[in-house]
Amino acid sequence: MGKNRGRLYIISAPSGTGKSTVIQRLMETCKDLYFSVSATTRPARPGEVHGVSYYFITHEEFEKHIQQNDFLEYAEFVGNYYGTLKAPVLARLEEGKDVILDIDVQGCKQVVAAMPEAITIFLVPPSMEELENRLRARGTEDEEKVKMRLVRARAEMLEKDNYDYVVVNDVVDKAVEEILHIMGCDIKPE
Ligand code: ADP
Ligand code: 5GP
């Protein structure tokens, strides 16, 4: 008999909350979990690797994917396109692997409309002041972009009650533990 279809998890959070940090920990911990690498037109940050963090592509390439209907969802976020390629996600789910999407609230709505079985988790910062501190301390955006991300963050926070679960990322270990509990994933052997 074939394996059961995998589960689809969506994690959203205002930029700077710690989504990437938490997801990295989940990927290190869970067996048979696949991280969906998004495509984006945003430039790579220092340390980000093409094909691992994102597929860094041009506007023209992104628009070609839109025309070819390659995306499960896509959205514009602070001046750039971000999108989830459909084929690898559907293939992993068919294989019985759980899949995790790190996408914004607009993308989450699109995926839930198409796949209502998706399990949605919204990660929140302990406070908006702390969010601002984290975003600035990361040092990856200039002042104008930080401000735009903070404006966006306030609007995104209003959407948190539309998610199945809300998890506070105060201490990383605690947030990771809470999400592991929600996911009930098999733990990788040491
Ligand atoms: P996101 O992916 O949500 O934009 P990141 O994972 O890049 O956020 O985290 C933003 C910054 O905050 C990073 O510098 C990261 O090291 C830091 N960070 C993440 N989680 C915590 C936490 N619980 N406490 C303090 N700093 C954190
Ligand atoms: P960042 O530029 O900080 O990596 O990401 C900015 C925002 O885009 C975050 O909220 C992140 O979750 C979101 N994002 C990343 N990939 C995708 C995607 O494929 N689709 C959508 N809709 N949002 C994405």
Give the topology, please.
Blueprint: E1 8-12, H1 19-29, E2 33-35, E3 38-40, E4 54-56, H2 59-67, E5 71-77, E6 80-85, H3 86-94, E7 98-102, H4 105-114, E8 119-124, H5 128-138, H6 143-157, E9 165-168, H7 172-183
Parallel strand pairs: 1-7, 1-8, 2-7, 3-4, 8-9
Antiparallel strand pairs: 3-6, 5-6
Bound molecules: adenosine-5'-diphosphate (ADP) and guanosine-5'-monophosphate.
Residues 15, 19, 38, 42, 73-75, 77, 82-84, 102-104, 106-107 line the site of guanosine-5'-monophosphate (5GP).
Written description of the protein model:
This protein has 190 residues and is α/β, with parallel strands linked by helices. The chain has seven helices and nine strands, in the order βαβββαββαβαβααβα. It has helices spanning 19-29, 59-67, 86-94, 105-114, 128-138, 143-157, 172-183; strands spanning 8-12, 33-35, 38-40, 54-56, 71-77, 80-85, 98-102, 119-124, 165-168. A five-stranded parallel β-sheet has the order 2-7-1-8-9, sandwiched between helices. Strands 4-3-6-5 form a four-stranded mixed β-sheet. A hairpin with a 2-residue loop joins β5 (71-77) and β6 (80-85). α1 (19-29) crosses α7 (172-183) and α5 runs antiparallel to α6. It is globular and about 50 Å long. It starts with 7 loop residues before the first strand and ends in a 7-residue tail after the last helix. It binds adenosine-5'-diphosphate and guanosine-5'-monophosphate (5GP). Adenosine-5'-diphosphate (ADP) binds next to α1 and α5.
